[in-house]
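Re: [ENG-882] Designed sequences occasionally contain unexpected residues at chain ends

Forwarding the minimal case from QA. Structure tokens:
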């Protein structure tokens, strides 16, 4: 073991979390921050979209490339998409949003038979692999997370009117502590408050986020003396088992079948294609199960 040495400030990859109620401007704010960083790097922006193409609403205002992630929103799909961004040479990544990954974990856990605590031991490594991929990747990451929306009554012009407020966010508890900066964005004013800020740039500052804030974040992240560290090897997610894939099939088949009678028939046809009984639990080959899952996911 080597002895202690004087600590030096290192350059880092930014990890920024933007939380807020629906309509607060999380995606827009992420694009503004990322654009500020892009101006400094002269680099393009990649965006992973789980919001049914919603980030494309701003394609006329911002210059970015997107990847539309499709259901089910497994941790492994997010990891694969992040690796794709790295492999294609991007240095800036927006993930809009990370809530869907946690919703997937909760849904899978809720359907697992047996002891709840023991079942979490199977889900947690998959979730942790996703979080580590976000935090350890050589990318400036701007991730959005949905707020837990609730309406409260407040007085306005002498009348009681409802106001939507965010009470926390839809992700695993304490997620915000993993990020360099975590913003909570107000639904009505779009003003951002830093609830956690390692940079000290946003302390006691309550403003709408802009490209200038992205530039400030980049300058802070690159004010160190040493090169920006990169992981020595790719983090490998836990391998999916046949049970994991079948659980995804069951969940997605149920969701798709509930949309219409016609879709339910299509789902049944696909299931029967992969096993004559139509029971996904009878599928024994994991590659066949993945193909079945992909076909069901492709039903319009």
């Amino acid at each position: 073991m080597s002895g202690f040495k004087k600590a030096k400030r290192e350059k880092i990859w930014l990890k920024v979390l933007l939380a807020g109620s629906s309509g607060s401007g999380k995606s827009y704010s992420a694009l503004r921050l990322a654009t500020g960083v892009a101006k400094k790097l002269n680099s393009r922006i990649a965006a992973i979209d789980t919001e049914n193409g919603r980030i494309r609403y701003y394609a006329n205002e911002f210059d970015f490339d997107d990847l539309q992630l499709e259901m089910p929103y497994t941790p492994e799909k997010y990891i694969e998409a992040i690796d794709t961004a790295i492999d294609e040479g991007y240095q800036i990544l927006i993930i809009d949003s990370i809530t869907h990954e946690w919703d997937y974990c909760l849904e899978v856990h809720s359907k697992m038979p047996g002891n709840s605590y023991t079942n979490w031991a199977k889900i947690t490594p998959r979730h942790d692999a996703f979080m580590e991929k976000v935090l350890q990747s050589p990318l400036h990451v701007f991730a959005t997370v949905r707020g837990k929306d609730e309406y409260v009554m407040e007085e306005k012009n002498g009348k009681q009117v409802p106001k939507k407020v965010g009470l926390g966010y839809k992700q695993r508890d304490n997620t915000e502590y993993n990020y360099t900066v975590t913003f909570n964005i107000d639904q009505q004013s779009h003003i951002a408050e830093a609830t956690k800020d390692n940079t000290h740039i946003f302390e006691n500052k309550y403003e709408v986020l802009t490209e200038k804030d992205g530039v400030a974040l980049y300058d802070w992240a690159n004010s160190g003396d040493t090169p920006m560290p990169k992981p020595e090897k790719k983090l490998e997610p836990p391998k999916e088992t046949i049970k994991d894939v079948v659980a995804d099939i069951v969940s997605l088949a149920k969701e798709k079948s509930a949309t219409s009678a016609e879709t339910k028939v299509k789902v049944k046809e696909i299931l029967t294609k992969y096993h004559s009984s139509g029971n996904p639990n009878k599928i024994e080959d994991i590659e066949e199960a993945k193909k079945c899952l992909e076909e069901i996911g492709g039903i319009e």
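QA comment: On inspection the terminal residues look reasonable. The longest strand covers residues 140-156. Proposing we downgrade this to a documentation issue.
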